[in-house]
Amino acid sequence: MITETTTLTRENVKSQTEAELAIELAEKTKDFDKVLVLTSTTTIDRITTIVRVANKTGKTIIWDILLNMVLQLVTQKIPNALNSNRVYCYLPSYLYRIRNQEPYKQYIEQYSSKIKQTGQKLHGKFIMNCRASMWRDIQKLKLKNKVLNNCCVVYSIWDGYKTQDETTIKFLDTMSELSIPIIDRTRIWTRK
After folding, report:
1. Distance between CA atoms of residues 180 and 142, nearest Å
2. Which of 154, 141, 82, 148 is nearest to 111 (CA)?
3. Selected residue with higher pLDDT from 61 and 10
4. CA–CA distance from 171 to each of 7, 146, 153 (Å)?
5. Is there a smaller number of Cβ atoms within 10 Å at the N or the C end of the chain?
């Protein structure tokens, strides 16, 4: 069983449904061409919400390779790069460097055509999941590749990571340095 538990400890708080959240996120992100969603790859309901937001806002879906693999193994109901011509695959730089080594090669090869097509899709309107560890990738996409103009990050993980996890703190600081606004459940902000 895969579960997400950060809402279990909240008392007297009514959580939004994923359908309500999709409407809210579509509204908050509709004016951004590129949307990066910082979320867990195992929160399947949130991944479904991202698909709904992409559909409502006309954005291409790009999953990182880890999420593509999780979706391929767990469910065929959510589009992934192997079962949909509307979904592409991003290979983070740390995996790119070892892509031809075993055991990684056997997992990466099946996504190779979608990985190649993703470079072109990064120049259009898209929504893509990301992880805090991908801050260097985002920095490169913004500064070197120049593909993250009119971009925002949707913060969709536990709020405690903002102050308790070094990688998340580095990610948020980097987004601030890059002038990429961060959207969470309550506001649009930049880290100071």
Report:
1. 9
2. 82
3. 61
4. 23, 18, 10
5. N
- Residue 115 half-sphere exposure toward CB, CA atoms < 13 A: 17
Within a 10 A sphere around the Cβ of 123, how many other Cβ atoms? 13
Q: How many CB atoms lie within 10 A of CB 93?
A: 10
* Residue 152: strand, helix, or coil: strand
Can you tell me the mean pLDDT for 91-118?
Answer: 95
Q: How far apart are CA 60 and CA 66, in angstroms?
A: 18
* Digit-coded pLDDT (tens) for 117-162: 999 999 999 999 999 999 999 999 999 999 999 999 999 989 999 9
Q: What digits encode the pLDDT tens for the residues 17-48?
A: 889 999 999 999 999 999 999 999 888 999 99
Nearest to 121 by CA among 99, 144, 135, 141: 141
pLDDT at 14: 67
List the domains of the chain with CATH numbers.
Answer: 18-189 (3.40.50.10710)
